[in-house]
Amino acid sequence: MAEPNQTKTTQISLSTKIKRLAFDNSVPILFIIICLLGVYFSQLPAVFIVNQLLTRITRNSFLVLALVIPVIAGLGLNFGIVIGAMAGQFAILIVTHYKVAGFNGFMLSLLLSTPIAILFGILTAMLLNRTKGQEMITSMIAGFFANGVYQFILLFLVGTLIPMKNPDMILSRGIGIRNTIDLATKTGIKYALDDVLKYPFFEVLVVAAIVGIIALSINYFLKKKKGSGEVDNFKFVTLFILMALVMGTSIWVLNSNTLLKTVKLPIVTVLFITVIWVFNELIMKTKLGQDFRTIGHDMEIAKISGINVDKTRTIAMIISTVLAAWGQIIFLQNIGTLSTYGAHVQIATFSIASILLGGASVTKATSGQAIIGLILFHTLFIVSPKAGNNLFGDAQIGEFFRAFISYGVIGVALGLHAWNKRVQAMRKHLDTDAP
Amino acid sequence: MNETINNIVKRIGLPRLIIGLLFLATCLTAVMIDLPFGLIVSDILRRFGMFGVLSLAMVPAIQCGTGPNFALPIGIICGILGTLIAIEFNLTSPLLGYGFISAIIISLPFAVLSGWLYGLLLNKIKGSEMLVATYTGFSIVSFMQIAWVTLPFKHPEMRWPIGIGLRVTVSLASTFGEVLNKLWGFSIGKVYFPTGLILFFLACCAVVWVYSRTKAGIEMSAAGANPKFAAASGINVDKNRIIGTILSTFLGAVGVIVYSLSFGFLQLYLAPLYMAFPAVAAVLIGGASTSKIKISHVIIGTFLFQGLLTVAMPVANELVPEGNLSEMLRVIVQNGIILYALTRIGGES
Amino acid sequence: MAEDYVLQMKNIDKEYYGNKVLKGVSLSVRKGEIHGLIGENGAGKSTLMNILFGMPVIHSTGGFSGEIYLNGDKVDLKSPYEAMKMGIGMVHQEFMLIPDFTITENIKLNRETTQDNLISKVFRSDRLKTLNTGSMAADAKKALNRVGLTIDEWVTVAGLPVGHMQFIEIAREIDKTGLRLLVFDEPTAVLTESEADNLLSAMKRLAESGISILFITHRLSEVIQIADNITVLRDGELVADRKSAETNVAELAELMVGRKVDLKGKEKQSREYQESEVILDIKNLQVDMPGEKVTGVDLKIYKGEIFGIGGLAGQGKVGIANGLMGLYPSKGEVIFKGEKLELNNTKSSLERGLAFVSEDRRGVGLLLDSSIELNIVFTTMQTKGKFLKRFGFFSQLDDAGIREYAAKIIQDLDIRCTHSQQLTRQLSGGNQQKVCVARALALDPETILVSEPTRGIDVGAKKLVLDLLIKLNKELGMTIIMTSSELVELRSICNRIAIIFKGKVAGILKASNSDQEFGLMMAGEYQKIEEDGEGRLNE
User: Fold this and answer.
1) A302 contacts C190? CB cut-off 8 A
2) Which domains does chain B have, with CATH numbers?
3) Using the 8-state DSSP alphabet, how is residue A346 labeled?
């Protein structure tokens, strides 16, 4: 590492900037490589992968975005989003029972799920406020616990304490909800959101890229005009090139004869996701968002400067739980059937693994990381069985590999976080030394 | 009056009291609805012995200060490996307990090695043991799924007849299935008493108890109860945490061998994923906390928790024939008690 | 002329669990004045400040009696937040800054300026208002200018020098509208000399701009240099109010420390010892104990004496014993009984015959959830293998042996308990301390290091513990090295007392030396005055 004649410049050179970018994003970069290898070995047609990916991203992003705010507020990765998902499923069951179908049914389930999710969020927050420092394990166990209660309500209280007669939904014995509920288009909310408006994906991409480039340029020149010296040229150029690439690829695809150009994008679903993304960004610019950050960094200082820590944490949990409930509804309208006792069980693991693959950690997460992670996680999901089959002659190995990745990446992230926390605590100890 | 009630509750401990009462109530219901009580009692005894050693694995972990061992699946995997190897090489003569003893011996080096590595990890992440442990366990189990498909075991009883990899469940009928249950087993009326199984569990408890009264055992408990105190007496705290982790991992291995023995099958793939939770819940019900535990907590807790689940199953089936009410009860009780213990961590200090 | 005063605290009394820590203390600060508040550790300064800031710890322990006036109006402060609203600010000893935040964000913490947006208007919620980053930055800039810190307000705090952080704290306080009184708690303790000078001049400027300053410190020369008036507390009592022009460092030192020590009969208490036989020879000992760093201590301790180590908190006196026992990383050379002592090895220190009673009784000294008997024999069992029965490979607790020994020592030390299996958690502070001493004695040591033996125990028990130490010294000939913040105690039983200042030995005094000498030495002023040669010591 001998670099003797390095001249010290105040400006950070481009190469160090790229190095730093690579280092900061080592996790996503590693998994981009694994994904590309997976895509290569799976030999799946591009149209299949893109199609699958779009479906999976649009139906899962809401759930992953629900994780961002608790991380910022210092509650860690919210394993309790399963509880939010249960709220969403309760709402769907009600809506399906009363046969409110289509878009109306969808909107009604969002509406109904909200108060339930708020209540669940408050309850979870009460628990987490009593177990400060152990939030993640508590939210995880709380999810397991809630699952037991959820089953108890739906399997035993429905039809006994909760009167309900609906042969399509109730088990033949008259008590308990069936294992799967059909959300078919005419009677349920299947595709209620996705089918409102669909456009060819690559056309949308071209338009988005053009809009993006224009917006970026205007922003850049406005900043330059203002004369503030801190215009980030590097960031601008990178983004510009990226968007130009997207546009170029899309135009190429549209002019080619591949099936890819038939891939369609559910516009309204994407709009929903964008709204939440913007919401996540905007709320951080408010007083409440600043309070989230403050309690996330140091609860003690926050308390002394007069922030009501417990209440702020509760708000963060409510937001996360409500978003999870809505997310589950969007997820299920795309799936089209509700697996009453299974649909929610794995979503915390999958969503958390996703956001971690995107480069988030227990203390830092952005909406961008959520989406990037989602793309990576689901690429892996789509290609690994086939890649496993082609490489090892057994699709199981690919499946097991992806299960291992979901758990492993969470395990590694948690371990690193705990280790870091300890190192920091030790360092803080040393810093407070009197001279 | 109120105070005496409070005192009694405090003495017995809220979890023990609630689960105990629930257990009694289900037993009474069982009697009232005329269930075959002999069979139920036999079942309680069997499950008590079957789960006992797994719960006992919590003792060294909590004593050495790393908290309930949610990474018990590591030990379980070692036990499974030991059993598979014992069967693969036909180390199943009656002298070797039809493979029972050889399985334990073979799993020992695996447990020592993985416990040591895992202990090193735990020393790096002090303060967040439980969460990291849970996901370490999950990761190992999911990783081993790949291993079960790829490891070169050849014995016909474990491989799928067609296709690749090991079976999901491996029958132990031809090896050490139920050998402990039958050892000196006897019946009183309709109650079958699995003497060997219960004795083995109690013997394990005795060994752990005796160990906890040796110099090394006391050293380990002190390191766990108050690391600063231990350090001031010249004790290497990190080393003791590793020893505790190794012991817990090994007991986990023995635990799963006993469990499989009594169950009659060895379960691979995802089966070990959640096995730590009932063991943790049992000792917490027995009166342990995340930092304090006694052997009596293991015995009482395992009996109450497994007893409750055993009785609840036929009772629930009788009352509401479809669906799995007892499984729900297990989920609620098990996770409820862990949540309760978590809320107590802050309160104690 | 009550209006002249920004702050008046009148007749403040405060009790903690029956222990009077403030007795009729009054304090008045004028507008634009710098008021010094000095006193030893435990003199009641921090309790007084906790009362002023309405800290929860005060209310949860039964409140206080007395009155507080701000600008002549009687006030009843219930929380630090309320105190802040009333215009009282504090610059903490440990910075209340978030490292990953920018300077602006830290200065405007929970006082961010906001502007309405569509949603906040609809919901009429203040918390949903957008942050006004422009005005926040402008405010921060202004505050930074006022304290004279030229640094960009958008820089993150992490990595800034300590001096800067302190100024940022001050900037945050003066940015609060209506700040009338600013409390500085030992502000120069963490600063280099030039940084400290900077700070003092900034404080003067602030005072000139009309903000009153309450300056809590141990550094007597600093307080004389900038304060207008000085209040001295000792043992929870107000001992003096002085104009700084009319006093000097020596007088302040005497006021701070002085109390009547009964020296009669002392010579009889301590054991005869030879000043020739050195049992412990410490050369350039350095101990990296957080908050109590030892930077180079040389001491010779004679066999059979009771040696005291005193000094103010944070100066490193506690670090010495901890370093000798290998509990914190140490360097240097220590000769014990003619042989070199291996540092950083607790086990070898114990085996060589050093025993230790920790200053942190509940944290380090005891297994709170174990029995008294196990606590007593534990260390001996681990280092010497006693109290065990051997069965070939393995060993078992020797219950009978332990019980017998515990019963004897419980009787010897008069530990009040129901039986020897009682948990130590259930004992009173004094009896817990005796268990700690018993554990040290079980080792059969030649030399015993006792740190803060009377901290947090009641008066009667204090005397018992001290008598016990004397008895051990006289009857068993034990060498005792006692570290204590309580100078009176040190002077009542020790032959010689080393005063530690800034991690080094400032000097060794006898119990019979004057209060003034002790006070000056503890405040680090002894050397300076001697060098000045003004001979004030002999006034």
Assistant:
1) no
2) 15-340 (1.10.3470)
3) T
